Amino acid sequence: MRTVLVLLLAVAPLSAQQWPQFRGAATAGVAATAVPTTWNLAANTGVVWKTPIAGLGHSSPIVWDDRVFVTTATSAAPNPQLDIRHSGISMAADDGRQTWTVVALDRATGKVVWEQAAFEGVPRVKRHLKASHASATPATDGQYVVALFGSEGLYCYDFAGRLLWKQDLGVMNTGLVGDEGVQWGPASSPIIHGPLVIVQNDRQRESFLAAYELKSGEQVWKVERDEFPSWATPLVTTVNGRSELVVNASKFIRAYDPMTGRELWRLPDAETQVKVASPVAGPGMVIVTGGYPRGSHPIYAIRPQQQGAIDATGTAGFSWRLDRGSPYVPTPLVYGTEIYVLADNGVLAAYDVATGARLYQQRLDETPLGFSASPIGAGGYVYLASEDGDVFVVKAGRTFELVARNDMNEALMATPAVAGGMLIIRGRSHLFAIG
User: Fold this and answer.
1) Number of folded domains in the chain?
2) Residue 332: HSE in the Cβ half-sphere, 13 Å Cα cutoff
C-alpha cells in the first residue's frame, strides 16, 4: 500500500505539489488537491511518515516537488521552556547558545536529505514563553530557499543545501510596546515575489519594509516605517494588472508597489497593538484583521487600487466592514464563497465573503481550546490545528458541520501544508505526513 501511494504521488501534477511559503501559493491557505479527513496516529492509519525534528520551532513546513523544508532552533540546554497556555507577557529563560537550522526532507519518505546550521550563538533577543526562536516560515521559488531567523539574519540556500547569501537585518526586537525589555521574538515570514524576497521588519525602533534580490541578496529597496512591532506576514495581490504589497501593522494598514516600495494607500487602525494575522485576498478586496484586545477589533474588507489615505470612518474605501469579530492570532481563510475566521479560543465563524454577512458562529469543542495555527482549505474541507494537538476538520459551506477530530498527540503551533495529496503537519517534536 505504501509503495502504491508513493507511485501515485510521483505522478501527481506539479501544480499540486507546491506549497511555497506561509499558507501556500499566494499565501492563500488553499490547496489544489484533496487530502484525508480522518486518520489514526496511534493505529498508524493514514500516516505516510513521521519524522522527528530536533529543537523548537513554530515555522510551517513548505513544499516544492519532492522536497519539504522546515526550520528549527536548537538550544544547548535540554528541555527549552514552552508554555502553550501562557497568555501573559513573560519571556522564556533560554539565554544560552542556540543553533538555527534549515532542514530538507524527502516528501515521499520523510527522510532528512540535508540540514544546514545557519547560525550558532546566543540569541540577540528573548522570546515569549509561548513562542520559538524559529517562528518565521521559509519561502521558495523552486530554485532558492529563503529562511528568516529574526535577529540572526536572512539566509538563502539552493536545493542542495549550499548557502548562497545572507543578510543581517539588525536586532528584530518585537515585544510589548513601550518596554523594550519585554521581548517576544519575531514571526513575520518572508515572501517571494518574482525576483524579490520581501521582509516586513516592524520592531520597537527603526521599523522597515525591504526587498532583496533573490539571486544575490542585494537590497533592491527599503522603506522606513513609523510602526509598532508587528508579527504579520505581507501579502501580494494583483487586481486588474496592478500588484499591491499589503502590510498589516498597528498604526496603519498599508499597500506598496512590490517592485519599488512606493506607498500606494494607507488605512489608519487606531494604533491597535499586537498585529499577528496576515492580510488575505478576497474577490476584488483585501481582508485585514487582528489586534489586541482579542475579538474587539474590526474586520476590514478593503477595496484595492486606491491612492493615498483611506477614511476609516467612511464607506468608500471598503467592500464591507465589521466593527468586531477580528481574530487575534490565526489568519482568516477565504475559501469558495465564504471567509472563515478562527478565534484563538476555538470559536469558528463563517461569513459571506462578498457581503460580510455572518453565516454561523460555532465553538469547535465544548472545552475551550487554544489556536495559533491558521485554518487551511483542501478538497471542500477546512482544517484547523489546535495547540492541544488536535486537527479539526469542518466541511466547507454555509452551515457548520464538524467532520472529524484527529489527535496528533503533541502540541500544534504551526499552520499545516498541503502538497501532492499529502497533509503535512508540524508538531512540537515531529513532522507528520498524512496521505
Assistant:
1) 1
2) 29
| Cα(374)–Cα(156) distance, integer angstroms | 26
Q: Which residue is listed with cell 477589533?
A: 297
Instruction: Decide: pTM greater than 0.85.
Output: yes
In terms of residue numbers, what domain contains 264? 2-434
As given in the structure block, the three cell numbers for residue 320 are: 464591507
Strands 263-268 and 308-309: parallel
Spell out the residues 6+ positions from residue 141 whose beta carbon is closer than 8 angstroms to its own.
20, 192, 214
338-360 residue pLDDT tens: 999 999 999 999 999 999 999 99
Q: Nearest-CA neighbor of 389 among 364, 373, 405, 412?
A: 412
Alpha-carbon dihedral of residues 392, 333, 224, 72, nearest 10 degrees?
30
Set of cell numbers at residue 117: 546550521
B/e letters for 381-392, b = 16+ CB within 10 Å, e = fewer, are bbbbbbbbbbbb
∠ CA 347-376-403, nearest 5°, is 65
Is residue 65 within 8 Å of residue 20, measured between CB atoms? no
Q: Could you give the CA distance from residue 168 to residue 233 in angstroms, rounded to a whole number?
A: 19
Pair type for strands 207-213 and 196-201: antiparallel
% pLDDT > 70, the chain: 96
Contact 369, 388 (CB under 8 A): yes
DSSP per-residue letters across 365-428 = SSS-----SPPEEETTEEEEE-TTSEEEEEE-SSS--EEEEEE-SS---SPPEEETTEEEEE-S
Residue among 168, 145, 165, 144 at smallest CA distance from 61: 145
CATH number of the domain that 424 lies in? 2.130.10.10
| Amino acid at position 159, single letter | F
Residue 187 has pLDDT above 90, yes or no: yes
Dihedrals phi, psi of 235, to nearest 5 degrees? -130, 135
Cα–Cα distances in Å, from 97 out to 91, 119, 198? 16, 10, 28
